[in-house]
Amino acid sequence: MPIRFNPFTDLSRDDPAALYRELRDEAPVHWSPEGQVYCISRYDDVLAALKDVRTFSSSAMQTVLLRGIEVPITPRYALMLFRFLLKTRMNPLRIQKAGNLISLDPPRHDTMRKIVGRGFTPRSIAAWEERTRTIVADAISAIEAKTRFDVVQDLAIPLPTTIIAEMLGIEPSLRNDFKRWSDAIITVASGSVVADLPDSGAVESLGELYAYLRERVRERRRSPEDDLISLLVDPKQDGVLDEFEVVQFVVLLLVAGNETTTNLIGNAVHALLDRPDQVEIVRGEPAYIQALVEEAVRFDSPLPMVFRTATRDVAIAGTTIPRGAEVACLLASANRDERRFEDPDRFDVMRETTGHLGFGFGAHFCLGASLARLEASVALEAILPLLSSFERSTSEPELIPSFFVRGRVSLELISSKSEADPRA
């Protein structure tokens, strides 16, 4: 029986390992008529596609996401769009034609990445370690006083949200707004509420974000400060971004910087709760913390797939992908490929994870990978001692309703101590 698989709807299960295995074994290049996309699932094929930027254009990272938010033209939708454009003062043609760092190809991609990379040098990231430890320590201190807490809401969200906001030079009072704006981006990009988009508040939140950032860009261009936005727009720098490019990059940061790290931490804790032996390995040897982070990214990738457009006819695993076709590179499946990783469905912090594709590869390797690794390692090191005395309040926490990112809406833990224990 032919495999039926739509990457936009069929990955919303707690563990899609069996589905990935079926694709790799039976249809390593699968045409999804529902999704109108070719899906490649084996490690070597995905890696080859990520390497070959001439054959596999990143333009699909924009076209696929825009396609996901197409809505019928009705008076309600027209009014919603009009209000958005009025609030942001943006040219709709510019929005349609604009590219973001993840959707651009060389040489334009390389030029923009060089500019934004100024804020993500090893030295720049290392400078955030002390602040990261302070934020995590404060969060853990509050958690330790509770018999019930939410890993996502109490730790995994506040940490990257605060760091990104401070990197951008945005006042701490807007931290909750930044998370709301980030949620709106995921909601719109994933198309999860298209039917109720005018009532969801997502577009209004995006309008707030765009309007706010435009003002900050203009302020920093006039009077640069010691923050990331200033690095991107200060005329004294060698190469700057224009107003719209900065807004687009910050939108990307809110997803790549917030959602990815949040879901990495949540996914890692979710995996560890079923594996006390792995918790004990890492607690006994703190040097394994970084290995834990890498295995978590491989095992339950926060970004399950990326999209590419074939620029020519190309044959993969006996199937020809025609020129112009859109391709879903299933990173999460590649990271579970037994051809590359032995016993890949086993979570093992002692595994050799070199080469996993959880942060992408090549020209589009995640710009913020070092920051995500820093934040996740500090957070996981701090929360590990608590896991032996807490358990999930539900066996299968709700997944974020999105095809673009993978993580839990919440991960509530309750004390497993006896009620007779006065400390519980």
Can you give a write-up of this model?
Strand 1 (29-32) and strand 2 (37-40) form a beta hairpin. Strands 1-2-8-5-3 form a five-stranded mixed beta sheet, sandwiched between helices. The protein has a three-stranded antiparallel beta sheet with strand order 4-10-9. A two-stranded antiparallel ribbon has the order 6-7. The protein contains 19 helices and ten strands. Helix 4 packs parallel to helix 13 (202-222) and helix 8 runs parallel beside helix 19. It has helices spanning 17-26, 43-51, 60-68, 75-88, 92-97, 108-116, 122-126, 129-144, 151-156, 158-168, 175-190, 197-200, 202-222, 228-233, 243-273, 276-284, 289-299, 331-334, 369-387, and strands spanning 29-32, 37-40, 56-57, 148-150, 306-310, 314-316, 319-321, 326-329, 390-392, 412-415. Helices cover 51% and strands 8% of the residues. It has 424 residues and is an alpha+beta fold. The termini are far apart. It is globular and about 55 Å long. It has a domain at 76-300 and 346-415: Cytochrome p450.
